[in-house]
Design goal:
Strand content: 5-15%
Number of strands: 8
Largest sheet: 3 strands, antiparallel
Number of helices: 14
Distance between the termini: 221 Å
Radius of gyration: 64 Å
Low-confidence stretches: 193-202
Strand order of the largest sheet: 1-3-2
Mean pLDDT: 80
């Protein structure tokens, strides 16, 4: 039994070993088969890969060949272009070389010419210096002196031309302006046609008899002292028969004193208390007369709308004279002339008339006030709301300020016309002689003037110059300079004509 079992076990083991061996060889055969199949597949893949790589390689070679061919073609084109550019550059280089060669030749030629020019310039400079030295020896002056003489001659000629042109322009403007101005002034004067002023306000009081002088003086001079103190005047009792003289720089106070003294002589009651009462009454009467005179003057001049104080101040000019011309009548006349000229010139007639009427209002101011009558009058009128154009005409009629409007020029012109009429004004002998002497001395003070004579009552000054110092063209400048100095330094009515006379005399004797 045991042997059977063992035999069974051995047989089982052998069978198991045979099964294992058979399984091993079968599995190995299967593995080998699978390996051969994988190798065959791998060979197929490798073959396919080789085929593809060969095809890709062929395609790559074809593309590379094409690229190489295109690159060679491009290179050949660029090489051809570079060859052409090289040929062009070679030609330009050859041209530049030729040009440089020509320039070098020209430079050499120019250098030769420059050296020749330099030699000739040096020779010319030497000749110029020699000629200049000879000219200086001949002329006995240096180059600077000759240049200065030449400049002086040119300046003299230029000044001569300038004076000639100025004289021509002034002559043309004067002719045209004189025609126009003469017509306007003639029309204005004919339309105004004022009477000549011949009366002068006097301060002489006529007495009924010689005994009245003693009553005026009074006991121990009591009456005359009281009268002079109350009236603010000086009473001169001299040997003039049946008259006494009242002296005072204030024309209004002089008029009050004249009226008061006339009333006292007619009344006969002359004592200090009555003197004061009469002077007070006559002061009020004169104030009323001045107010009425101002209103009448404004009415005659055609001026309206002025302040009462302005009218009253204008009335004071009734007793004021200038060179014998009554200032209130002068104001009315200037106002009329200004209106006519303004109408002819197209200016504002009302402003021109007011400017002419009020231009001398400053002469009515108190003598204690400082300033010119033009400045005082303009300030006074500005205070009472007179138009600024009129104020400027008042202030500028003696050129103390600038004339800003044509109405100011018209007022000044009308003032000159009114004062320059024959017989309109007169002046005392002393002032006349002083003005004539001043006029002649002023003319003689200029260099080159030999003599000067004032003629036609100071309306003209004739000047005789030295012909060796003043030529014809300088005479024109001298006349203008003297006229300008007269305008700046002298006060005179109207205008003064300046005549310069230059003459050369040759004298010889026959023996």
């Amino acid at each position: 039994m045991i042997a059977n079992i063992i035999l069974s076990i051995v047989i089982a083991l052998i069978a198991l070993g045979a099964g294992f061996a058979a399984g091993y060889f079968f599995n190995r055969s299967q593995v080998e088969k699978a390996r051969r199949e994988e190798e065959a597949r791998a060979q197929g893949i490798i073959q396919q890969a080789n085929d593809k790589s060969s095809k890709i390689e062929l395609d790559a070679r074809d593309r590379a060949l094409k690229i190489v061919q295109e690159a060679e073609k491009d290179i050949n084109g660029r090489r051809n272009e570079l060859n052409r550019e090289t040929e062009r550059l070679d030609r330009r280089r050859a041209e530049l070389d030729a040009r440089v060669e020509r320039l070098e030749q020209r430079e050499q030629t120019l250098n030769k010419r420059q050296s020749l020019v330099d030699r000739r310039t040096n020779e010319t400079d030497k000749l110029y210096e020699q000629q200049l030295e000879k000219l200086q020896e001949i002329a006995a002056m240096t180059q600077e002196q000759a240049r200065q003489i030449l400049l002086d001659e040119v300046e003299k000629e230029a000044r001569g031309d300038m004076a000639r042109i100025i004289r021509q322009v002034e002559s043309e403007a004067r002719d045209e302006g004189e025609k126009r101005a003469r017509k306007l002034i003639a029309d204005a004067i004919q339309r105004v046609a004022s009477e000549h002023v011949s009366e002068v306000t006097s301060a002489v009081v006529v007495l009924p008899n010689e005994e009245m002088k003693g009553r005026i003086v009074g006991r121990n001079g009591r009456n005359i002292r009281a009268f002079e103190q109350a009236a603010g005047v000086d009473v001169i009792v001299d040997d003039t028969p049946e008259s006494v003289t009242i002296s005072c720089f204030d024309s209004v106070r002089r008029e009050v004193a004249r009226r008061a003294l006339t009333r006292l002589t007619l009344d006969g009651r002359i004592h200090p208390a009555h003197i004061e009462k009469v002077i007070e009454d006559e002061t009020k009467a004169v104030e009323k007369v001045m107010m009425e005179a101002g209103e009448q003057a404004a009415f005659d001049a055609g001026i309206a709308g002025l302040h009462t104080e302005v009218i009253r101040m204008m009335g004071r000019l009734k007793f004021r004279t200038s060179y014998g011309q009554n200032q209130l009548a002068h104001a009315v006349e200037v106002s009329k002339l200004s209106g006519i000229l303004a109408a002819e010139l197209g200016a504002n007639v009302e402003w021109a008339k007011q400017g002419g009427f009020l231009h001398d209002i400053g002469k009515a101011m108190d003598h204690n006030q400082e300033g010119t009558h033009a400045g005082l009058g303009a300030e006074f009128c500005q205070r009472y709301s007179v138009h600024p154009v009129v104020v400027n005409a008042i202030a500028a009629h003696h050129h103390e300020v600038d004339q800003n409007t044509v109405e100011a020029v018209i007022a000044e012109s009308a003032d000159a016309i009114s004062g320059a009429r024959p017989g309109a004004r007169r002046e005392d002998l002393e002032a006349y002689i002083k003005r004539i002497r001043t006029l002649e001395d002023m003319a003689v003070s200029f260099p080159g003037v030999s003599q000067a004579f004032a003629i036609q009552a100071g309306r003209e000054v004739r000047i005789i110059v030295k012909p060796e110092e003043i030529d014809d063209l300088a005479s024109t400048r001298l006349a203008r300079d003297i006229a300008k100095k007269i305008e700046e330094t002298m006060q005179y009515p109207g205008q003064i004509r300046v005549t310069v006379i230059r003459e050369t005399r040759a004298v010889d004797f026959a023996k």
